[in-house]
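look at this one:
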Amino acid sequence: MIDKNTPPNNLSNLSWIEKLQKRWGVNYLQVLTILFVFAITGTTILLIKKPVLSFFSESGESNTLFSILYYLLILPIYNIVLLFYGFILGQFYFFWEFEKRTFRRIKQLFSKKK
C-alpha cells in the first residue's frame, strides 16, 4: 500500500515538496497532482494562443490590439481551464480556494487604500 503522505525513498531529499505540503495543507500525492494541473493548464493555454491570435488577426500576426486583448482574456480563460482540470483530477476545492485568493489580491490592487 502506498503512503500518500511520504515521498518514495528515492525522492526523500526533495524538501521543496514537503514545503509545499505544509504550505498548502495537502499530502504528497496531492502536491504532485496540483503541480500536474498547473503544468497541463499552462500547456493548454499555450496551445490555444495561436487559434485566438488567428481569430483577432486575419494575418495571424501579433499586434498591439491583440496583445491587449490577449492579456485581458487570458486570465479568465486560464482560471476556467485551471478549475476544469482541477475538477477532473479531484482537486477542485484546492483550486477554487486558490482562485478566490488570487482574485482577492487583484481586487486589493485596484481598491482605494485608506
In short: Residues 9-110 form one domain. Helices lie at 15-24, 28-56, 64-88, 92-110. Residues 28-56 form the longest helix (29 residues). The chain has a mean pLDDT of 84.
